[in-house]
Amino acid sequence: MDIILTVVLLCASVISTGLVLLSFMHMFQLNSYKPKVQLVWCRKNSRRFAPFIIDVIAFAIAALTGSAAGMILLSAAFIITGLFFLPAKKAKKPLVFTARVKRMLTTEAVLYAAASALTLCLLLKNGELVSIRILTLVYFILHILSPFGVLLANFVNKPVEKAINNHYINDAKRILAQCDRLTVIGVTGSYGKTSVKFYLNTLLRAKYNVLVTPESYNTPMGVVKTIRGSLRSTHDIFVCEMGAKNVGDIKELCDIVHPRHGVITSVGPQHLESFRTVENVIKTKFELSDSLPAEGMLFLNGDDENIRTQLERRANVTYGLGEGNDYSAFDLSVSEKGTSFSVKAPDGECETFTTKLIGRHNVINILGAIAVSNKLGITLHELKPQVRKLENVPHRLQLIDRGETLIIDDAYNSNPSGSRVALETLSLFSGKKILVTPGMIELGEREDEYNREFGRNASAVCDFVVLVGEKQTKSIYNGLRDKGYPDDQIYVAKDLNDALAKVRALQYEEKKIILLENDLPDNY
C-alpha cells in the first residue's frame, strides 16, 4: 500500500511541479533570463505564491497524521495548486521553447529525478518505506521550492550557456570579418531608435544594399542571430539597433559588431529600475560614442537636453529642429493627413520633404536618417522620394483607420517623453479623443511621479480615459483628478478586453480617435 501511495504522491508532485516550473520559466524568459530581475518580479508579484497555502495546510495534516489519508490529501493539494499555474490561453507572448529553455527544463528534470531517487533509496528497506513523514516532507520541499527551480537550473547551466553564446558570438564576428567592405551603423537611444533604424533602411536603399536588425532584435544574441542568419557579402551597410537595460550593454554590442558610425536618438528616463539614474542612461548610450573609430561619425539629436551635455566628447554631426544643428528642419506643417518640412544640410543644400507620417517627433527621427544618408553620399534631392515611401513603424504611433474610428497604436512601449509625444499626436485629430492605457513601467522610484504627470497631461487632451488595471493606473487617475477631470469620463477596466469593450460601447456623433498607449507584457 505504501508503494502505491508513494507512486501517487510522486505523480502528483511531478505534474504539479512541472506546471509551476513552466509558468515561472515563462516569466524568466520575459525577464530576459536575468536572475536579479526574476527575483524582483517574484517580490513584486508575491500573490502568485498564494496557491501554495493549500500545500502548506495539506502537508501539515499529512505530517501530523503520518497516514495514508494524509498522503492522498497532499497529492490532491499538489494537483490543485498546479492547476493555478496552467498556461494562460491568451498570453500576449507565450513561452517559446528555445534551445536554452529546453536545456533548462532538462536540467530541472534531472535534478528533480535525482532528489526523488536519492530520497527513495534512503527510505526504502526490504521494499518498505521507513518513514512516510520524511517522504512527504521531501516532496513538499521540492514542490514548494519549484518556483525557484528555474534559477537553480540557470545557475547550473551557466557555464554551458556561456560557452554556447561565445561560440555563436565568435561565429558572428568571423562572418563580419569576412565582409571587408561592410559599413556597420549602430543606432541607440531611450526612444526613437527603432523608428530611425527602419527609416534608415528605406533611405539608404536609394544607393546601398542594406541589412537591418529585424523587429526588436537589439540584444547581443538577437544581433548575433541576424548576422549568422541574414548577413551576406553583398550587403554594403548593416544597421544595428542597440538596446540596453544596464550599464555596459551597449559596449557589449559594440564589441561584437564594431560600428564605424553611430546614432544616438535620445536619452531619457527609461528602464530606471535597472539603470537607477538618468546619468547611468547617458553613460550607457554614449558607450556607442566611445566605441567608434577616430574617423567614424556620431550623429546626435541636438534637440535632446541630455545629449547636449555630451557634445564636447568628440566630433559629431547634430540634427534637430533647433538652431545650431548641422542638419536643421524648419517650416513644419503638420496635419492629420501628414507632414511637410524643409531641411538644410551643412553644405547649404536645401530641400522640402513630405511624408504621410504625423508629428514633430517623426520629423526629428526622419531628419536623423536623412543626416546619416546624406553624409554617406546620397543627396537631399535623391532622398525626397525615399521619405515619401516611409511607413508607420508597427505599434509606434501607427495609424489604423477603421472608418468610424481611428486607432493610434503606440502599444509597443511607453516612457515619459513618448507619452507626451503620443498625446501631442492625438491632439492633432478632429473627433472624440479617447486614451486607453495601463500606464508606464520600469521607471524605478519615479514611476508614480511620471504616471501622475501623464494623467495631468492627458486631462488637457482627452475626452475620455480608459485605465487598464486599477492598481497599476492609480497614479494616472490621481493626475487626472489633480486637474479636475470628471469621474464620469474615466473608466477603470480589469484588462485590455474589458477596456476595448468599453471603448466600443461609447456613443459619439463624431469619429472616435483612440490612442492605445502601452501594452504591458504577461509578467505585469
Give a quick set of tags describing it.
about 50% helix; 17 strands; about 525 residues; 20 helices; nine-stranded mixed sheet; 3 domains; alpha/beta; Protein-Tyrosine Phosphatase, Chain A; six-stranded mixed sheet; UDP-N-acetylmuramoyl-L-alanine:D-glutamate ligase; globular; about 15% strand
Describe what this molecule looks like in 3D:
With 524 residues, the protein is of the alpha/beta class. The protein folds into 3 domains: 2-158, no CATH class; 179-388, Mur-like, catalytic domain (UDP-N-acetylmuramoyl-L-alanine:D-glutamate ligase, 3-Layer(aba) Sandwich); 398-517, Mur ligase, C-terminal domain (Protein-Tyrosine Phosphatase, Chain A, Alpha-Beta Complex). Helix content is 49%, strand content 16%. It has 20 helices and 17 strands. The chain has a 9-stranded mixed beta sheet, with helices on both faces. A 6-stranded mixed beta sheet has the order 12-13-17-14-15-16, with helices on both faces. A hairpin with a 2-residue loop joins strand 1 and strand 2 (128-129). The longest helix has 30 residues, at 149-178. The mean pLDDT is 88.
